[in-house]
Amino acid sequence: MEIDMHAEPGDWLVVKGTIVDSPDEVGHIIEVRHSDGAPPYLVRWIRDGHEALVFPGPDAHVVTAAEKDREDTHERHRISAVQDAIARNPHPGQRTLRTRHAGA
Q: What one-character DSSP code corresponds to residue 22?
């Protein structure tokens, strides 16, 4: 089975975890060796910064730089909303910078 994969430098390679609950491996594509965007790709892995020439298998897919930017922006907004909700309704025993406790 041939994989029809295309990438550009700046895109991201995502390799699905092969064990239940294992995280995906994510790498930044820093070089594409073929003008048509076909593999192999020179990838810098996020986990450890290691660079490797990768021939992706069927468990991998490319996320464009634009898609990754949208995902990251969405995730930052989601995290900010959760942090705001926590700040508005802290756990009763939680100390916050806005709350002064006796002896603090």
A: P
Go through the chain and tell me how many residues it has: 104
- Pairing state of beta strands 12-15 and 25-32? antiparallel
Question: For 67, phi and psi rounded to 5 degrees?
Answer: -65, -40
Q: Identify any residues that bridge with 10 across adjacent strands, giving them in sequence order.
A: none
- Residue range 13-34, pLDDT digits in tens: 999 977 887 888 999 999 999 9
Q: Is 68 helix (H, G, I), strand (E, B) or coil?
A: helix
Which residue, chain included where needed, has tokens 């898609």? 67
Which tokens go with 2?
Answer: 């041939």
Q: How would DSSP label each residue in 48-60?
A: T--EEEE---TTE
- Give CA–CA dist 53/99, Å, rounded: 53
Residue 34 CA to residue 37 CA, distance in Å, equals 5
